[in-house]
Design goal:
The complex is a heterodimer of chains A (489) and B (96).
Chain A: H1 8-16, H2 22-36, E1 43-46, H3 48-63, E2 75-79, H4 106-113, E3 117-122, H5 156-163, E4 169-173, H6 180-186, E5 189-192, E6 213-217, H7 220-230, H8 248-251, E7 260-263, H9 274-289, E8 293-296, H10 305-320, H11 338-349, H12 352-365, H13 370-391, E9 397-401, H14 417-422, H15 428-433, E10 437-445, E11 448-456, H16 461-474
Parallel strand pairs in A: 2-3, 2-4, 7-8, 7-9
Antiparallel strand pairs in A: 1-3, 4-6, 5-6, 5-10, 9-11, 10-11
Helix pairs in contact in A: 2-3, 7-16, 9-16, 10-12, 10-13
Chain B: H1 6-15, H2 22-39, H3 73-78, E1 83-84, E2 87-88
Antiparallel strand pairs in B: 1-2
Helix pairs in contact in B: 1-2
The chains are: A alpha/beta (489), B mainly alpha (96).
Amino acid sequence: MSAPIPGAAEIARRVAARDTSAEAVTRAHLDRIAARDPSLDAFLAVTADRALAQARRVDAAIAGGGAAGPLAGVPVAVKDLLDIEGTVTTCGSRMLEGYRPPFTATAVQRLEAAGAVVIGKTNMDEFAMGSSTENSAYKVTRNPWDRTRVPGGSSGGSAVAVSTGMAALALGTDTGGSIRQPAALCGVVGLKPTYGRVSRYGVVAFASSLDQVGPFGRTVEDVALAASAICGIDTADATSAPVEVPDFRAGLAAGASGLRIGVPWSFLQSGVDAGVMAAFRQSLADFEAAGAHTVEVTLAHAPHAIATYYIVATAEASSNLARFDGVRYGLRVPAPDLRHMYGETRDRGFGAEVKRRIILGTFVLSAGYYDAYYRRAQQVRTLIRRDFEDAFRQCDVVALPTTPTPAFRLGEKTDDPLQMYLEDIFTVPANLAGIPGLSLPGGFVGGLPVGVQLLGRPFDEGTLLRLGHAYQQRTDHHKQRPPETGLHD
Amino acid sequence: MPPVTVETVDHVARLAHLSLTAEERVAFARQLEQVLAYAESIQALDTTGVEPMSHAAARETFREDVVRQSLPRDTFLEAAPDGADGLFRVPRVLGG
């Protein structure tokens, strides 16, 4: 058993107190990446020089008497669809191999302004389409709890980096569960903020009405620190919301007393692994022991969320990904005329899942099918959102397992897209409704971590975090770390 | 539900400017049919009078309509496969 790896709050405190330096912390994490990542493949790029330069800036500012930022010296891993000026953004796709964006995502700018140190870009399902990170064009990321299993996705590399201490925090994006699901399967905390809470500027778009940036951390406190740094209005994103951002960490002390947790039991009746259900029931008991109480709520249309999601999300994706045509960025396959250049570039640049979703999305938008599929899915989306509005009249948060099963085996679902889509059953409703969701380490099933998920009212991340923090005061799931594997595993 | 044939996939692929291999065409037809069959469940719901929801934003926020400095044109052209003379160069458009 090795010493616990310090988290974001502790690193920032020690760097501010000059008990250690940002540079020393950064070097320790770079060493850890060098030791651990060859057997996990969480990172697509390690930005060591840029990280050390930022760390030295943070140290110099503190040495010069400046105020230390709330994330001073905290190493952060960034999913490879958030742009960093001059650093390659691949989106896990051959289409963008070598593409260097000329701007930096607002969420990354804000983390760095708070003193954080970006140490690398993490692996992901191509264009964030997938639930296992197996759709990356570059490498297969492994679950650190069992290397024969997936880490979840699409932000799988970010979840693994935090789970194994290669980074203290990470950024991901969540369009249908892509932060919460890998967080659950890797045993870390993942927050999908309310739609509009975090700017999408500099984030490669998958489904613009659903995409949201959010943090991973090993504790709720660390995630609260990151959330306070990245949330807030940004004039570069017209959907970012003019809603005040509280000091989420300061709000944690309020505790769970009196909070009402709604449980949609009828939504949980089938298809959930028995071990996951047992862990979920234990989590509810722990929430109650922390002072919350549970009530039953109904999400009548939630069983239709997957069908709705895979129509809405693919329709938006087919439109968003039209821009990858060999003209403005990334790959171009030469051809004698423009039409063939488009077709050959997109054939070579996109992997199977991306093509599949472009086909599905183009189909549901095409003449004759628009009303029956796309428009109807948008109407069902309204019904799903109304169900949550009704539920939040009876409760403060809704609780669900994050996933129906623990991590599945590599290759298990790659040939069956529908089975892969069903993995997202408990996470997509929040994206469709635009509400925040928090996945917490919620126990273990057969040695694999599983997650418990809290969903809240729009812009009420604070309540999710304070209930999650109260839960972590009474449970130690989040303190368990995956086995340290060496050269011989 | 309409039958999904290879011809359906070909039509959609043309709309999306995707060139597909023979194997992809067959596999996508089968998988598209599977996913659409699963999505049939929403056809039975009563959506009479329900407004379609196009996004989850509380409201869109507009900035003042004033001219602002944008990034220099060349930074974008440098990131393109074939940028030259202030333009994106592409192969022949007509008469191919």
